Fold these 4 entries.
Entry 1:
Amino acid sequence: MKKLLLFFLLLPCLGISQNVNVSNAQELVAAYKKAKPGDVILLEDGSYEGAVLLDNVNGKKGAPVTLKSAGWAKAKIHSKIEIKGNFIHLEGLAFEANGSLELLGNSIKVSHCLWDDSKSKKWLRVQVGSTATEIAHNTFQNKTYNSKYPKGCQLLQIVVSNKNERHHIHHNLFKNIPEGSGNGFETLQLITHNNPFDPPPGASNTVIEDNYFERANGEAEIISIKSNGNFIRRNIFKNCKGSLVLRHGDNNIVSENIFFGTDEPKSGGIRIQGSGHLVLNNYFQDLEAFGIGMMDGTPDDLYIRVSDVQLLFNTFIDCQNTLQIGINHSKHPNGTPPMNCIVEGNVFFFDRGTPGNNFIEYVKGDRPVAWEWHNNLSFGRSNAKISGIRNENPQFKRSDNGLFSPSENTPSTKRLATDKTDLMEYDLLGKARGKIKTLGALQFSNGLPDTILAEGNYGANYSEY
């Protein structure tokens, strides 16, 4: 017995990881200060009151310091937790009352946590200087206090310098986010430090993928990208009052996202400013505001002129104002129209409502400059009389999951005008396109999986905890 007791007393000295149980904020701080790589701090059931700063502790690759709720969402955080360190994991915590989280460090991971109706303005913030933050399998819901604050209420805010931060945001559920009182209520904001209108060269290489947004109505920008060189892919937007916005920055890739407007009159798709963006393999259905909108540039650089953007192999189903080109800011009614863009392989399909006018709107008559249109289809409304768009039935069929999918008779192409052929190897659902590429976001297949649209695949899944 004495030898066994001595072994446990020597564990910290030997560098062997151990579990430590805590039951309040004070015990949590004390345990964290003593933590070594590989240690697990278990937060027992109950409420954790008072702001907490966890600083000057680092785990190691493969041996993080872990803060974990003993029972999923049973450790309830009622105040702000600020973590400064490297290789730190947080798992299964519930943020209520005024609970929030702020992170600064390298390789911090937040997973299987629950934010539900917290009264804090910002729920989760990643500070500038952080790298390789992973935010995965969390649920953010019921941000009702958006109505109590005037601005600065971004739910998830990530601040970068476009220096290869490589953050990874995936498999989260954002649900029931009420509308705020104005600007500053983005559900997810990726922003360059000090928010320059035209960020200097450099890439963040942050990946925002496989997230589910339902009734994320905080403001017009659901995801707001104010950064360079990021990947926004395979996210689902359902019944949201807003759109995915490339607001500041260049060279972002937006691919394989699905937008369902359902019955939301302000539902939108993708709004674009800046240059060098690639928008491909996205699916837009029943959007009442617009499918894709492009802003005019302004002389004060509030809106950088759209240029060198490529719209490739996207599908639009029954979207109002499908392409809005040259949207003006109210202070600058005559800006510089989008230029040097390529539109190829897209399908614009309408099977309901009055055919109406052209689905392409040049706002205030602003005509795009030096655009290329190649091998696009429109059906159900008059085409735009543009060489490169032909009026032809794409022969779609409605699948069990609600998507309009191609049939064996849907037109295809063997040749691409764009130089982005390496990114056209797969379609919206990851199916190889091969040499004969079906027009639109989906390659012809005999069956489509339903699981991609299942809300249960996203968020804090306690059964896996």
Entry 2:
Amino acid sequence: MDMSCTSTSIITATTMDNFILRALVAGIGIALIAGPLGCFIVWRRMAYFGDTLSHAALLGVAAGFALGVSPIAGVIMTCIAIGAVLLGVQSQSRVPTDTLLGILSHTALSFGLIALSFMDTVRVDLMGYLFGDILAVTTADIAWIYAGAVVILSGLLMIWRPLVALTIHADLAVAEGVPAHRIRIIFMLLIALTVALAMKIVGVLLISALLLIPTAAARRCASSPEQMALATVGLGVFAVTGGLYASLMWDLPSGPGIVAAATVIFVLSLLVGPRAFRSS
């Protein structure tokens, strides 16, 4: 009897170790992507842009189910469509851009919820999509995350210098021959892919927080764009590790736990000193 209980305990502990390890590996993969992209979102004051794309992800989930394709494919297609609309309307002057982004953000989220409510034949884990479930990631999910990370980081590396130039002084960069419109489109595509990959980890409501909070913390202790990107990745990894530890110790929801850990890191960063790097 004792041996049976001991064997059961060992199996349970091994299973727990496995899913915690998978969650940690998946979270680190998202941190690797979110760090550099988050830097440009902060530098370019695109917080509302990222928030709008993340909220549109739920509409993408509904579109995926309606079209009979993977929800991730639906998210990517929808985020690309919304991003294209955003890029197209930035030049208009009737409605302020931040107001328009706020309208699109909440509209996309609301229509996504409405569309999912009509799908009686589809069982949807709404809480999972909204707040993520990193503890449920599989080996296949991890493979997708790291394959996506290779694509996203490779794409970002290709446009890094022109994107930095556009961020520092857009008019001067254009005068020097930087293809601004093409660079912005590629950057939007990279954000859309990131949202699709991160959706299962922290959920559509918390993706923008993972993109922004570690970046805001790293901004105070970096003296160059490259240093800030590396620091953001490091702080993102700390946030993932701390959030998972808190989730395991105190039975907290994992996605919000990661964001809460990132917030603690940001608050601590305020004690470091004045910000050394400013992109704008």
Entry 3:
Amino acid sequence: MKMIFPSLFAALLASSAVLASAAETGSIQDLQERLARLETAAMPAESSKPAKSGAAWYDKISLRGYVQLRYNRLLENNDNLKCDQCDKSLGSSGGFFARRARLVFSGDVSERVYVYIQPDFATDASATSLHFAQLRDLYADLALDPAKEFRLRIGQSKVPYGFENLQSSQNRLAPDRADPLNSAVANERDLGVIFYWAPEETRKRFSSLVSSGLKGTGDYGVIGVGAYNGQTANRPEANDSQHLVARVSYPFKTPSGQFIEAGLQGYIGRFVVPSASRTAGVGGPFEFHDRRAAASFVVYPQPFGFQAEYNFGVGPEFEAVTRTIQPKHLQGGYAQVMYMKKIGGQVLTPFVRAQYYEGGKKQETDARRYLTRQVEGGAEWQLNKNLELTVLYSQEDRAYADQATRGNRQKGGRMRVQAQINF
């Protein structure tokens, strides 16, 4: 109040002077303009609010996602040829299918903390129910230095084992990951803590191998070392023993500009085959040694590309003769060639992939024993950044054994079509 009255008094005096001046000049318009200026100057100043130090954390979160819609039964010649881990819509009773419906919430919520949350809305809860939401990723990256070269990843995330396992399904050419390495970790994820290290320039290179369309994995470090539960994603821990994993991978750049990435990885732990995954009457121990090692080699498509991985190890496997689950050796790998051609704003990438796997799949009923041989070839057509179409033909020979079948071998071929919408 003490400040308001003097200001008003000064305004009245000034107004009188303006009126006198206006009377002499006879300019009413001039009078109105001067009074408006004086009114503004005489108003008491509002208390200024403190400036925000930065945007709120929720303003730093970005949202993106993708959807994959498939039809797998064109030119099919054996509707009993299925793959439970690959795509549950393969074979009989498989029509149009939403394979993935992902949303990704991510961002730097502070200078040293990055969060990543990814649910999937195309999960099948049972044989008769589809399109349930399930968590895929939920983790925070804690930067241990200002350049973020040293990071701790805490939560549910991809286990750093294999190139194709780490490669997003949004970027991968083939609709499904190959059995040999994907059988190591169902859904590629688990709960744990992983330490990653990569120099700042190498982190930029990992990022550019994705953003440029070259089908990279993203930044999983030059070195990754960590511990995780070992029962695979969205399953509770079943013993007091965590799995340990280590990976080394580096993307080289040749003088010609060609990118080549080589990697070595391995894990060790003890896996429990739960009672719910074991058929009545199947014997053997419940806890098993679970260890693998793998090598990866990738020549990025510029325009020709090559990708190969091979792994071997020990894990639980159904034994038909004794009707028990036993620790057994496993091995297998895949090789893929591709060619990337840019046509205007579109990208066409034909590819051929062959795979072989012999061993158990610990996450399936009775830790089924598999012998898989498959060759598939097709092309991915990126019409624009929001729409991709993939068409391929696969020829497969799959044999597996569990308590219910004791031995089931199916051969055949089919054409598969996938539409992917990115947003």
Entry 4:
Amino acid sequence: MEIYLEYALLENFFVDGALLFLSALVGKRKIVWGRLVLSAAIGAAFAVLFPLLPLPMPLSVTCKFLLPILLCKIAIKKENGGGGYALTLLFFYAFSFAFAGLLYGVFGAFDIEYFEVEGGGIVSKLPVGGLLAALVFFVALCLLGVKKLYEKRRTYLHIYDCEIVGDRGVLKAKGYLDTGNTASYHGMPVCFVTPDLFYDFTGGETPTEQMTVVTLAGEKRVSVVKAEKILVGESVHGVAYLSPTSRLIGREYKILLPRALADEERKRRTE
């Protein structure tokens, strides 16, 4: 099998550059393009030239394991503390193994011939365009997955254990502090809860009080019932009202807490 040096350098340059970019982005490090390009070029040169060196296997494996430390050190601008660099390096290892796994899957799925050269590295008949397409797909998939993870993380930062105290007892559920919930009734904030939680709180009885809420579909009337006390985490809040809803409730929580409680909680944290 013929190996074209320029193609091998190009492939490895783009792969190392993409993995470094992903690692820095996910690790929330400042991306300096000049440093990243230099690091990717060094990684590409290493990948092409290293298999030609007559090194024993233990030393060869050690060098390949230590290379990402150098590449990340070059690509990532030094900032206060080493936590950001360590996290970026960890992501680089993770993305490298994941992309290698994707390539092996592509080789198997499309019956593409490949072999491992002495000293490390893989040579295959996968065209350059095919490799770059797999790389673009991998980067897009990783970015989408990371975006979803960060969205979940932001959500969980505002989820608390809640207790709703009323005449019929105490209900315990997860609540989400939502700054977009500005609903009020008689000057008191309104917590929206799932229908099953509202049913348990009212004992199955239909409340006599109703309030008007404005949605994208227009105005509608919903039932409300008073709660004497609501505990959000370690904070105790006074009188509030509850109203049932089948929307705006996520799988992670059953109570949509109002902005007024969010403001109180934020103020308590800063004191």
